Protein 1
Amino acid sequence: MRHTITVRVNGVEERHEVDANQTLLSFLRDTLNLTGAKQGCNEGECGSCMVLLDGKAVNGCLTLAAELDGHEVATIEGLGQAGALHPLQSAFLKHHAVQCGFCTPGVVMTSLALLQENPKPTELQLKTALAGNLCRCTGYRQILDAIQDAAKTMRAQSKRRTA
Amino acid sequence: MSQTKIVGTSVPRVDGLEKVTGAALYTGDLKFPRMLYAEVVRSPHAHAKVLAVRVDKALKVPGVRAVATGRDFPFHTGIYMRDQTIFAIDRVRFVGDPVAALAAETPEAAHEAAQLVEVDYEPLPAILDVVEGIKPGAPLVHPDLGKYYVESFITPKPGTNICNHLKVRKGDYEGALAKCAHVFENTFTVPQVQHVPMEPHISVARVDLSGKVEVHTSAQSPFTVRHLLCHCFNLPHGDVEVVVPTVGGGFGGKAGINLEPIAVALAMKAPGRPVRVAATRAEEFYATVVRQGLTATLVTGVDKKNKVQAQKMYYLWDCGGYGGYGVNVVRAAGYTCGGAYHFPNVWGDSIGVYTNKPVGSAYRGFGMQEIHWALEQQMDRVAHELRIDPVEFRLLNCLGPKKTTVTGQLLEKSSGRVDKCIEKVDEVLKLRARGKKKPFHGKGIACAVKAPAMPNNAASSVIMKFAEDEMLEILISGIDIGQGLATVAAQYAAEALDLPMERIRVRMRPRTDFSPYDWQTVASRQTWATGNAVLRGCEDLKRQLFEVGAQALGAPVSRLELKDRKVIDKKTKKSVPLAAIVVGYQFPDGHTIGGPVATSAHHVPDGLLFLHPETSQCSKPVAKWTFGAQGVELTVDPETGNLRIERLVACYDVGKVVNPGLIKGQTFGGIVQGVGTGVMEELVIDGKDGRPRNASLMDYKIPTALDIPDKMEAFYVETPQLDGPLGARGIGEHTMIPTPAAIANALYDACGIRIDSMPITAEKVLKALKEKQRREKEGEDVQPAAASVAKVRPPARATRREAGRERPGGVRARRGRAK
Ligand code: FES
Ligand code: FES
């Protein structure tokens, strides 16, 4: 069975035919060639496929593309680019929170969802939010520090915006 | 050492931008037109004869384009020992051993076809326990062991399951033991564990109609992959190109050669079509490679002054079905068998044993975490038994300048200082100067040492060239698997040529057709080897720039300096910008001198010698040692058995900190990986049928953000390494070596229990606590210091009698008698 879906991905409307069993992750990687989200296990256990679905962090490998009709997806590719990085991205660079980088897109998207919901998380809230994102390289410390630093920048930014 | 400007600072990663934007391309992100997808047919048996492989039904599945079996490709592979064929031919040796593979237009078609491959097996008795495997008369995993090609420094024993045996004989162990006031013997075990890189193994191969082979692969060592592929398929090196895109973690699991031969074999059957072989997460656990298991028995003889005089080490390694890479872990563990200690009299045996389990290979630390699990707990036990402080005891017995290693190598001032690392950890954690002890709260320490395990001629090289805009390009073939090699290489060049980091581009995704040779990215050798090559290359670039600059400025070379992107005459202060020299300098009248400025440079370890074949004595067996220590502070929950690691303090003598941000990342990452193997990780292989019982991330847990120590602190001693680039030595692997033992020692300090078998799970802790309570109730002698199960006894006659006998089973035999 094939379904036609219309979905906004990083602000761009996409209309595609998808197989009933195609995952969101495969839709992004294979259909749209957005390879930022990674496949580390394809069974919901590693978090390297995390993207935002209507602002909430979801495992791309556990979500079906057919269910995306009318929804909005955000991936690392829509976050920032050279010269215009998102505070999370800049903080990851500053804190050396990236090693092999395979987990990075997923970790960044998960933390983005958290900070949008909770701009000032405690260390424990942060660790809990990240518990579904495995990183084998960094030992997480510099990632946690980077996210807290980015949270500060984001709070200052939103204060400036509302002021 | 002169002041440095860029080396020693936390410049951001040069590959950071592409990684935080999702732009970095890993092998699985590459699209190849008309790519085929592979599925591997793997053995469900731990040990069996392969009687027949029938593929006719599989070939009928629509979309199937190629199938490959053992009989099509009867070629051997393996880095140190060629004991493995691409697909099993007449025998499978572990659950997961490849038997055949298919390539199809879609992964689904390949999967369907794989189910239709019919294999007739005749099951054989399986060796699923290393102690069984070494028994005389045990079924042989490799009856043809005597026929394999083996590197000269690997010594298998045909007719047994021993794939390598390294002996260390230093001084007079037997005589010294007889004179010791105390003798301790304990056995420790380590299970097989998996690397769990976040990016599973993946390779894409294409063979074109002219026969040229191109392989894109997630690997640590493109040139070694090429070399072994050429050997395996009997191809000239010029016909095989290996390309390594961004790699999502390796930890040793992507060293040597892995899925590449399967991809190439299939590609040969479907000329012109790229074939992609990707391990599923489950295959990653049991069918790629694992860390070897270890059973270690140690005997320690101590004199009246608390000095260890005699030390015996008996290491039995569970190498799994093939020894290709693991045999060298056995060797490294042998010549490092005494860890960070000075033992005057040593009897060491490191023995690799084939079993019918997943294949052992390199894993961050290359055997060192495993042997330190045994050594560092043993030292702690001995200290407690002798009622001296474990820190004191370590300082009294550790290696240092003028001490000799187990191979008799005399250490120098520049070899690094473990004593300083111990003292730093002690100072920070207040191990000796502690106040009153809280119940179930403890502190412990463990030391670490490791040398690069590599052939004596392992080389690295770089190509350095200026672009027209005087951007310096550095081509390296060491792989940045996350450790930060590309950044470090740029830092060294920036330092040596006084260039800003932005003026340097490191070309870090090698293609063997164009890139400089590099042996492998393993052994914590890249900062040291590639760093040295870069510094040497900079010297030559400078020479070329000065040669032209001298003519341009009309000044002798001796008056020139390179600064701020200019060649400057120190006397007249006249200068010429680099941009005017790097592709040739043109005089005002139009005539041109010089030309594009470029060079290549290499590094090969200096003066390494082979070990003595019978005793392993050798004055320089390895290029360098890196020493360190870690201390742990934890609380035990007596209800659940859970450990809460409150503080973890690490200190290493790294020679020179090249980039504080990166080295912290290496240290924290290693610590947490060490916590993983220390308290939660074990690849469970069923003792009856050899099948993996936890081959998923659901069942095989690795640390999450919630599992890290509450506080991690990293310190570094900088005793310059004489042949290190600006004094630096390796650190990547060392950071996970002592962690499990330090946790175990802190656990003992907290509640008087010892866990000899890694990992220290909550279940084991609870069980040991209960056992301790029971014994206390029954009024057994369990004063804190004697709670250890170590056997304390005077040197028995039996000890003296058998210690001198040349027999691998020596320790076991003796334990039998002692009972
Ligand atoms: S790929 Fe989705 S959780 Fe691992
Ligand atoms: S940086 Fe490698 S897995 Fe996180």
Note: The first strand of chain A starts at residue 2 and ends at 9.
Protein 2
Amino acid sequence: MKGGWLRIYAIVYLIFLYLPVALLPIFAFNDGTIIAFPLQGFTAKWFLELAAIQALHSALWNSLFIALVTATLSTLLAIGAARASTRYKFPGKAPIMGAIMLPLVLPEIIVAVALLVVLLQLGIGLTSWTVIAGHTLICTPFAIAILSSSFQGLDASVEEAAIDLGETRWGAFRTITLPLVAPGIISAFLIAFTISLDEFIIAFFLTGAEPTLPVYLWSQLRFPTRIPAVMALGTLLLLASLIILSIAEYARRRGIARTGGKDSGGFL
Amino acid sequence: MIGLTNVEKYYGDYHALRGITANIPEGEFFSLLGPSGCGKTTLLRAIAGFEHLSGGSLTIDGQDMSRIAPHRRPTNMVFQSYAIFPHLSVAENVGFGLRKRKDINRDARQRMVDEALDMVGLSGYGSRRAHALSGGQRQRVALARALILKPKVLLLDEPLSALDKKMREQMQAELRRLQRQIGITFVLVTHDQEEALIMSDRIAVMFDGQIAQMDAPQTLYRRPSTRRVAEFIGVMNFLPAARVGDEMFDVAGLGKAFIDRSQVMNGAGTDCVAGLRPETLSILFDGSDVPDHSFEGTITDRAYYGDMTYYDVVITPGTAPVTISMKNRAGRPILEPNTKATVAWDPRSLIIFGA
Amino acid sequence: MAAFDATARRGLLLVSPTFVYVLLLLAAPLATVFAFSFWTQDFLSIDYTVTLKNYQEAFSDPIYRTLLGRSLLIAGAVTTVTVILAFPIAYFVSFHVAPERKALWIFLITIPFWTSYLLRVFLWKVILGFNGVLNSSLIGVGLIDEPITLILYNANAVVITLAHAFAPFTILPIYVALERVDRSLLEAAQDLGETRVSTFFRVTLPLAMPGVIAAVLIVFIPTIGDYVTPRLVGGPDGLMIANMIQTQFLKLNNAPMGATLAVLSMCAVTLVSLVFLMLNRRYLKTS
Ligand SMILES: Nc1ncnc2c1ncn2[C@@H]1O[C@H](COP(=O)(O)OP(=O)(O)O)[C@@H](O)[C@H]1O
Ligand SMILES: [Mg+2]
């Protein structure tokens, strides 16, 4: 069979990929405080315990707030930058776009300490907004990458046709371009949201009195008794991510179906 | 109607349009013909308002266009890619430009859309999704969408180049009919000389950002003003020639002949070049009379096209052959290479260019 | 020229909010870090005299050198392992999976990465640990008697964990590059007498190199800056420069030294990346 060995390798590789993820629900429902085999029996008590931890709830709400604001800001910033880079020529374009995309190739810890140093120098206290500032910085390039391919895929003459038929420049953008890149905007927003929600390093440096969810998780990993509850939380987060991902994929498919394009590859 | 005066366009350092001057009267089917990259699209987009002029002026209906934004110009465009809005239905595409018009209510708009679709032969397609259409149908939607706004000028950028041959021929006839019917000015961009000849009232041939010649199709074909135009439109044989008297020319391999002044193009000095279209030469088959002007040659090659046969005939050994096209008629043989042939020619269909 | 100015202005206007944001929140902070690296910490305050003392210390104290060297080594190992493990998968999906099922495979590959990064690293600790999943299963099956200790709290564990963490970021660029390879080129090569193996090395691989190069950089650069994985599974021998930067900033309260180490790691990353790009520049020229 063609690719026989490769197929076996691929399946082994997939097992490697799924190994840690598969353990998540297993230990979340395991009736024992120690995360090890053999399993102790089935329980849902860790999920119930989650409901009782007040600090967790505030960390979750905090993270959701940060992710929401970050996603909104980065998507807005990315729409302008992606359109400028795909549609217009302007002096200094390459260095400007290079600087904007730089966080993609900068170790996160560098971004984190750089921001921390400045904030401390300026005497600005660490709050959720400082985390948002850092997250927006690293999420924007991802959003730009996604939106650029949406704008690129757009036939420039479609917008010109709208102007030709009497729309103003802004009207053409609103009635034609925006609806056509809407799936890209949704994807960019969701990606930024997810990155921000899961981001730990920057949040760890820049978070104030109210930790984000990953920062809270980090603090809990040190206490063995808390681990099963953390597993339960992880399971829920995974479910939430999968739901968000499905929505994003659905939006993308609908976008493609609506404009009659070819489905080229999956999400991301 | 459209007045172009010394129009210039630079893209950075690149000089895309060099002093274009032309007047296109109302109701004319006008074509811009030239090889790819000569600036046809740039000129068309300048008329539509998508390119600012670097110099010169553009008027439409006597009104200067320099300060008029594209969405306010009395022109509409059919884009090369058709630019159908992929997320809208056919009817929404066609009615797109009407939404801005406050004086037209829903019912009137619906009626106008139906009429426009009817005009391009797409009645009943209104609710279709735009992306479910074939190339020819998209073309018609683009046409209806532009014409529904009753522009004074319709601009078409290579509208037929994406269609297959049959469809293209059908659309050529249809566009021509449509233009006669509504009587507005059409400006068509094409690189296909045959298409330009078939459809246009007048053709501007462009090279390198300049208009090389602007004339009616017959004039353009029969009296091309330069060798380059002659080569671009159809096929032409070129033979070295010399002026030996006031209207007397000696053409290599053909001999001397009187050539009327109207056939002598600007720039023809003592040394010049004679141009002959393949169909103005004819091989004499056995039994026909030998006319005044003829020459002997050897067939070196032939290409059979079904309705026509093209022969390459060498007059003087060692020189380039001339191409002759012959209609294939009943009883007329297809000659083999290496046969001798007598060829008749007519001084009245010969053109003299500068060397 | 008027048109050029108009579009240029429009483009600049659109890009300017993002650009200003980056200038204020990235360029200025990076410049500050750079400045800090020439200052010194004087108990609670900063001594603003410009000096190379931090750099001298960074180069003379073996701990910094060890950490930076180890970071580069581990990042290099992680990159090599990840890319080598990922390439066959990208190749398999691109060449052996039916077109209509490719999206599904890519989807399958990306799903595990929608779990919290912290938890994924932690779960590797669970898997690789002394009483971990791997050891207990292997003992259970009877393959080993004693738990293997070679795989937790050392550099090996860091490599395994990061190879897992970066899997989709390597597979995707290589896959995209392979998808772009014109299949008729491969047939042409075989038509010209190459075997399937030599076709792979002489045509497929060179054409896929831009994807491989992107994958290498995508893994290498952030790995240097990771401190979660070394902390959770690395043990004392697995700690990396990022852990030291974090310590300097947050524990020792010595921001200038932290800044110096940050600048040095950035320089190291940039240098290694540039050398790598130089070595591979012939593959990048054609596209
Ligand atoms: N926006 C632009 N920027 C720079 N050069 C351009 C631009 N648009 C067209 N050109 C150049 O101008 C020349 C004429 O282009 P165009 O008018 O599209 O030619 P065509 O006759 O094929 O329609 C070409 O050489 C093209 O490369
Ligand atoms: Mg063109």
Note: Chain C has 14 helices and two strands.
Protein 3
Amino acid sequence: MPAQEALEIGLVEIRTRDLQRAREYYEAVFGWTGTPVGDGSYAFLDTGKQPIAALYEIGNRDIPVGVTPYLLAPEIDDVLADVAKVGGEVLAPKSEWGAMGFWANTQDPWGNGVALLQPRSAWSPSYRAAPRHPIVWAELRAPDLQAAVRYYKRVAGWSFQVKPGVDHFAFRSAGSHPVGVGLVGGARADLLGQLTMYARVDDLTEVGERVGRAGGSLSQHSKTAPETGRIRIAYDPDGNAMGLFEDGPRGA
Amino acid sequence: MGRDFRRLLQGVPCWNRRTQAIYEQHGVPLHDVVLQSRAELALLCELIEREGVRSYLEIGVWTGRLVTALHELFDFDRVAAADIGVVESLGLPLRLPFGVDFFHGDSHSAAFVAWRRALGPVDLVLIDGDHRYDAVRADWELARRSPCRLIAFHDIVGDDPGSAGVRRLWRELEGDKIELVAPNDELGQRESTMGIGVVRGPFPRPGDLEADWPG
Ligand SMILES: C[S@@+](CC[C@H](N)C(=O)[O-])C[C@H]1O[C@@H](n2cnc3c(N)ncnc32)[C@H](O)[C@@H]1O
């Protein structure tokens, strides 16, 4: 049985209570400049390479802040059918998203929120910035690692690898994809609060200092990253996490 | 018409000019790529598809790129690998497909014989470990006494002294032999210096009694 064409992460959406404050933060820390669209509650952030980022201001406090990756899907309906078959949940059905195309929102059985975007035409945002701090990695909670590998194989066409002797972690290497994916299994999954995207930074210390100056905060310790390098987690003024991956994987 | 493996393999890094230069300088291809010519790998994929291979064992995986690429392309029902772990001592990463049955050790050890026995029937075994004659002969002797349909060898042509043992064994083998040989166009070659040879089974052949198992 041939493997299906894999879906790639094209957009990372960050929900905020204050779009202007968040714009200033991401520009100051990562150099991602924002372009507001529509009524001003949405802005795209130029990360320099796929995936692009976006800020979404949500006043309704019933909807939590958070970070959601969007998979680019040629046919959202097909993906939603697979999500339902393998135990995921459709949080928002397919609906129009203006000139962008269509979107939908899903959640896997372990609580990771993954949205879908079906662009109207080929997905090619015009990146102007140099890709100095691209988003290169996504880490998901997967207490049942086997099931999560099966789930994402079916839903996204992803194949995972392991390192011999490491049984709690499966990954889709960043080398030949825009964003690598790590599934953290077993007891370690409990230590992982939420789905976390990671940006590659050249100098963890320098970027870490900018986080503090821009009104964010940092996790206490840097630890060894899934592939190589040091990581720390930066929290924006809304409390959204973005991993900082020093000398991390070079995405495609 | 079958799938276009040349296209499907585009994103898979294979033995290229850089690998060749490193190999010529150090005598070891210290490079995290599939240690195969892309053209020959495409031929191997065509054979895997044609033969309906659903289970695969690779002896000698280097950094795991080949077994990973094949599993991504074919989504085997069962995938297994064995390696003594040379790359880890060279500072290169070793990564294997999720769900792999992995033997981390010497393919000539008693532990490997037991592991191979427990693994059961496999459609295709690729022997690509230690290339010295006695070593590759031992891998073959065990492979042909174990239940499988096809046994493949890497490095059956060329004049690299490092793979002379494989070429000698390949010449000696009898049976239904298939040669997958194509020049590596990433090196601008006119003639292959690698080549994949496949012996068709089923194995064990009548007369190759289980009692003859080495180890
Ligand atoms: C030529 S590389 C394999 C290349 C890989 N099949 C590919 O196509 O990319 C040879 C591998 O055999 C392994 N090896 C050598 N001697 C071995 C032995 N006695 N048992 C198991 N593995 C061995 C080495 O560690 C090395 O990774």
Note: Residues B 34-36, 58, 60-62, 65-66, 82-87, 106-108, 128-130 surround S-adenosylmethionine (CB under 6 Å).
